[in-house]
Design a protein that fits this description.
340 residues, 5-stranded mixed beta sheet, Uracil-DNA Glycosylase, subunit E, alpha/beta, 12 helices
């Protein structure tokens, strides 16, 4: 695994999480590339979609793997971790559980379930114990199937949706529900509706600028209301804010009419409404005004200009101060809008 990235960083999520999800290992096209557990490949897209369906906020959970590096076969493709590799990394998983102290540990797949046996012995078998809550290591252990495509042969996506709803119900039962947001109600503004509004107001936009405009809309809303507009999971990367919900493959699936071109290594998006598409995406009121004003102010800037504007916002300036004072690297850290 010497050529693989060690995927353990703050992009895993909240350090006060009540739920820890444990996968198998970082995927070659997913976390081994993005540095974000369960993000960037098909397994990651499925995982994020299942969380959304069960209304589990990714910013309030922690995601890791039984093996922290991507095991590759002789051709460079994903390989299942060996028993020795699982044993070698078991102490790392045990340390994460002890430090974060989640109320619930959810294993995703047989490998992840096997890895927990090296921390505290149990006799659970995935096919027999799926979607059950079991006392383990002073917390609950819930075995689920892996969200990858191969696992769908054994556990349909519909069944997996029910599995994630079960996880959410168990969380409510232990009298420590997911932390409530300051927004009115439990459901925040729809991320896709905001993305559509951005795309409709920009005849053409590249992937870089789309992430920055979305962040600035969130930031401008937060300044007015002291609460988030959406539940989008946004992390700080070298070039500024990156929103996991805006992965281009997820956007293409959600918006089939979206046209994506690649020019000089940049992804360019075009989204148009024609007579065969119902335009039900227009956002009115205060949110619509914030979106339009943000686009008007920043939409015509170059990528370097909008990057500068983003880094002058309070959360990003706070990152820079922390990095300078504490001499730490804060890439892939989730962005907290109340961090000033």
């Amino acid at each position: 695994m010497d050529g693989s990235q060690r995927v353990l960083n703050r992009s895993g999520g909240s350090l006060n999480a009540d739920i820890m999800f444990v996968g198998e290992a970082p995927g070659r096209l997913g976390a081994d590339s993005s540095g974000i557990p369960f993000h960037g490949d098909k397994s990651g897209h499925n995982f994020e979609e299942l969380l959304d369906f069960a209304q589990i906020d990714r910013s309030k959970i922690f995601v890791t793997n039984s093996v922290l590096c991507n095991p590759k076969d002789e051709t460079g493709n994903n390989s299942t971790p060996t028993k020795q590799e699982i044993q070698n990394c078991a102490s790392n998983l045990a340390d994460q559980i002890k430090i974060l102290n989640p109320r619930i540990v959810v294993t995703l797949g047989a490998v992840a379930l096997e890895s927990t046996k090296y921390i505290n012995q149990h006799n659970l078998v995935l096919r027999e114990s799926v979607r059950t809550a079991n006392d383990w290591f002073n917390r609950l252990l819930i075995p689920l199937y892996h969200p990858g495509q191969r696992a769908m042969l054994h556990r349909s996506f519909a069944n997996q949706r029910s599995d994630y709803q079960f996880v959410f119900e168990q969380l409510k039962k232990i009298n420590k529900p997911l932390k409530k947001t300051n927004s009115i109600g439990s459901i925040k503004y729809d991320i896709l509706a905001i993305i559509k509004e951005i795309l409709l107001n920009q005849s053409s936009i590249d992937y870089f600028k789309l992430h920055k405009l979305f962040y600035l809309i969130e930031y401008n809303y937060y300044k007015l209301h002291n609460t988030r507009l959406t539940n989008a999971y946004i992390v700080r990367q070298k070039d500024g804010p990156y929103c996991t919900d805006l992965h281009f493959q997820k956007l293409k699936k959600a918006l089939p009419e979206l046209q994506i071109r690649q020019i000089n290594g940049n992804l360019i998006f075009n989204y148009t409404i024609d007579i065969f598409t119902t335009n039900d995406t227009h956002i009115e009121g205060e949110v619509g005004n914030i979106i339009k004003e943000t686009i008007k102010k920043y939409g015509n800037m170059s990528n370097s200009e909008i990057k500068t504007k983003v880094y002058l916002t309070d959360p990003m300036k706070a990152f820079l101060r922390l990095e300078k004072n504490e001499k730490v690297n804060l890439y892939n850290v989730p962005i907290q809008f109340n961090l000033t």
